[in-house]
Design a protein that fits this description.
It is a single chain. The protein has a single domain, classed as Up-down Bundle (Growth Hormone, Chain: A), CATH 1.20.1250.20. Helix content is about 75%, strand content about 0%. It contains 19 helices and no strands. The longest helix has 30 residues. The radius of gyration is 21 Å and the shape is globular. The protein starts with a helix and ends with a helix.
Amino acid sequence: MKMTPLERKWVWYDVGNSAFTLLVSTLLPIFFNTIAESGGASDSDYVVYWSYATSIATVVVAVLGPIFGSLSDLRGMRRKIFSVAVLVGALGCVALGFMQHWMWFLVLFVFAKSAYQLSLVVYDSMLCDVTTRERMDEVSSRGYAWGYIGSCIPFVLTIAVYVMYYMFELISLQVCMIIVFLIVAVWWVACTLPLWRGYEQRQFVEPAGHPVRAGMRSLGHTFKEIARDKRIWLFLLAFFFFIDGVYTIIDLATTYGTSLGLDTVSLVIALLVTQVVAFPAAILLGMLSRRVKPQYLIVACIVAYFFITVYAIFLDREYEFWILAVCVGLFQGTIQAMSRSYFAKIIPGEKASEYFGIYDIFGKGASFMGTFLVGTVTALCAPYFDSLAEQGIHTAFTAQSIGVAALAVMFVIGLVLFILAIRCKAPAAGEGGSGSLAAEGEAPAAEEAEKTE
């Protein structure tokens, strides 16, 4: 499939923001662990504090996402709100490099990640403007695919800087952090420029009165529409569980590995392999969506993640972490891309930002339930395993592995809810839900296709 210029510009933002995602799942928790350890925190505390900070960022996005989404659906507002979120997130990323106290580091992390997630609320909704309904699955997959492979460029640069500090001690930790976060922020903003210049909001809501009051009224109406459309709210519930598990694995991978005593450089390189594997996997499975319904691909990915979680429980060697990284790479991009495009197809395009703001409450706010669950279970189990260690008793499990085991339940619940969702039919026009949408599997109206060309 040959992408249009606007589709390519939209994909470029995935290339840019993925650098921040990769940083959050690799070097950033390692920096935090180093700072926290120097402040006297224990190994299990690494996972607990990081999990809670990620959960707080999720709550912030859950509150602000729908509000920002409803405002960005108004005529001329989508680009403005998107730009503010990107700039605030990039500046927060730069400032992280100067933080040397673990508490302030976490506070600024919550600030930067919240802005990053809010930019994605608007970015995801732009999919309805930049392509047609028939091309959404593949364009969404291309975004994730090129995001994974493109983010490897700044990632390799940041790894080189980290090696200068960690292995050769040529620079201090603070200098290393400043350079690493600056590289990511510059890459993020640079890859955003094509979309800034080329994007035009084609589907929008005309403001009726004051923009904020109009946005809040529209948001309330959207919640009522979702409540009446079983297909949408069941999907959102399913998405909450299965994607929460996915993002928890992404966010806590290096934190979990370092808490088990695995070498940090090896862990980071293994996660680079994840990005490389995810590129062809997302492209190929995106092409497969032409022949296989996207919902079937989502089901296959959920089942695969269940077994990945079970495997992670027994992980205690570096080569096992590498196997885990490859398996995650095979399905990570597909489950994200197919979920995004599936949701974009079942919502009204003119209110896409508002709907995606609600979508991010359940997902991209990144692991509220998952990280909180892992952190809480780990904290509850830590005293028991610490007492066993004091007695000289060694077990095949750790407090951290028991925390990870809780994620398997989330994938089971997500799978059941998603199967129920795809069995629901779209409400007929006039029933008050998303009835103006084409039913699943049908072609959109001709005028809608022309609007998004």
